Amino acid sequence: MEKYLVGYTTGVYDLFHAGHLNIIRNAKALCDKLIVGVSTDELVAIKGKKCVVPFEERIEIVRNLKFVDVAVPQDTVDKFEDWRHLKFDVLFVGSDWFGTPTWKEYEKKLKSVGVKVLYFPYTKGVSSTMRRATLKE
Description:
- The chain has helices at residues 18-28, 41-46, 55-63, 79-86, 101-111, 128-136; strands at 4-11, 31-39, 70-74, 90-94, 116-120.
- The protein is an alpha/beta fold.
- Strand 1, helix 1 and strand 2 form a beta-alpha-beta unit.
């Protein structure tokens, strides 16, 4: 598989788990420099959700992973806007987004500036949503 110079991936990374680690580790294997966007609490709130772990702790966890070269706040869902600021060559995302109208549009826009979108398999059996449900019980 092709190796890229700068890769980018994003997430909330609340209740950090193996699925998060899988995407980050696999992304780093395909690029020289990996930038990871961590959703701010304000961005998560716009989606109608609330994090268990505050933003400053989540970004500190991500920043300290050996696979991460740079961790940045993600304050927009617009991946093309992220590209304008970060100038990555490839965007890594979970396969659960593949084929959705939003991501088809991102693929088209990013392709126009030479950026490839790569989808990684979703890690079955683990999610922050499932963990939150367990905590509620």
